[in-house]
Design goal:
Helices cover 75% and strands 0% of the residues.
């Protein structure tokens, strides 16, 4: 083997050793993060609750003993019983079935709207933080303007203009809740773009979009994931508020906010109508918040093992 080939082989071995060391450190950090998460009992409880709600939504047809939109004559406002643990609503529909199927709406809106908000927020924040100048100024003013509006008022106006439906709810919530993701990503990108590895990538002639996609975004995903997990609960509350006001999921389709609205006029006569969906909203939002808090603590490099 020639001297040049030996030199190239040595360099390749060194590069492989560096890559293995980086991979080892990455796996070690993930393992330490999992240990921190596993030690957080509240976070584990949140995960269990989230899994239960997800399973209830996925297997709603198999779990629900009754049709959520079927009206049974003579059952208007009947109290809970052994066969109907949550009782009947104001028109004679089984509340347990409506709560079970309502979990689908809550999770669909919470997860899909969060995905839309994260996509928009990450794109806006990355562009503003990386390019700076007039791009940063324009996108930052757009973000500040959106955050200046009262969110629930903006949601009500947009839902009223576009018409109430599941699709409208997803779009309206998704395009009005991305600003906080943009601000977090922008700050992280502005810090990262001054790092040596970004400077080296630029000097090597790597395209801007590739630097953002391959080198910057992977380093800002951890806080975004934590923020998105915490945001799912807030979005579920927003969807419930829209449905409660009649601007979200339309009856007879079951939703927790709509069922709360159904029981509002009968709160003194049939209080069980409002209790069940209210408890589900509370538990689901609490579960995602505990999960998000646990992720935040686990992914924080300043935490001690």
């Amino acid at each position: 083997m020639s001297e040049k080939e030996e030199s190239m082989a040595s360099e390749q071995k060194a590069l492989n050793a560096v890559a293995q060391e980086i991979e080892y450190q990455y796996r070690s950090e993930l393992l330490r993060g999992w240990r921190r998460f596993r030690a957080n009992r509240a976070a584990l409880a949140g995960v269990v609750l989230v899994i239960l709600v997800v399973l209830m939504a996925v297997f709603a047809e198999q779990i629900s003993p009754y049709d959520p939109i079927q009206i049974v004559s003579g059952k208007r406002g009947v109290a809970p019983s052994r066969d109907h643990p949550l009782g009947w609503d104001h028109v004679g529909r089984d509340l347990l079935a409506r709560v079970i199927f309502g979990s689908r709406v809550a999770l669909i809106v919470g997860l899909v709207a969060s995905a839309v908000a994260v996509t928009i927020g990450v794109a806006v924040g990355a562009a503003a933080g990386y390019f700076g100048g007039w791009v940063d100024a324009a996108l930052s003013r757009l973000t500040d303007t959106l955050m200046a509006f009262p969110l629930i008022a903006l949601l009500i106006v947009l839902a009223a203009v576009l018409g109430p439906s599941l699709t409208t709810t997803l779009i309206v919530i998704g395009i009005t809740t991305w600003a906080r993701y943009a601000r977090v990503v922008r700050a992280d990108v502005m810090s990262l773009k001054a790092q040596d590895f970004i400077t080296a990538a630029r000097a090597a002639g790597v395209k801007d979009y590739r630097i953002i996609w391959r080198h910057i975004l992977p380093n800002v995903l951890a806080p975004v994931i934590v923020l998105a997990t915490l945001g799912v609960g807030s979005i579920i509350i927003l969807e419930s508020a829209l449905s409660f006001l009649g601007l979200g999921i339309q009856p007879p389709n079951p939703s927790w906010g709509g069922t709360l609205a159904d029981g509002r006029a009968f709160i003194t006569l049939y209080p069980h109508i409002s209790i069940a969906p209210g408890v589900m909203i509370f538990l689901t939002v609490l579960a995602f918040n505990l999960f998000g808090d646990g992720l935040r603590d686990a992914l924080d490099p300043r935490q001690m093992d």
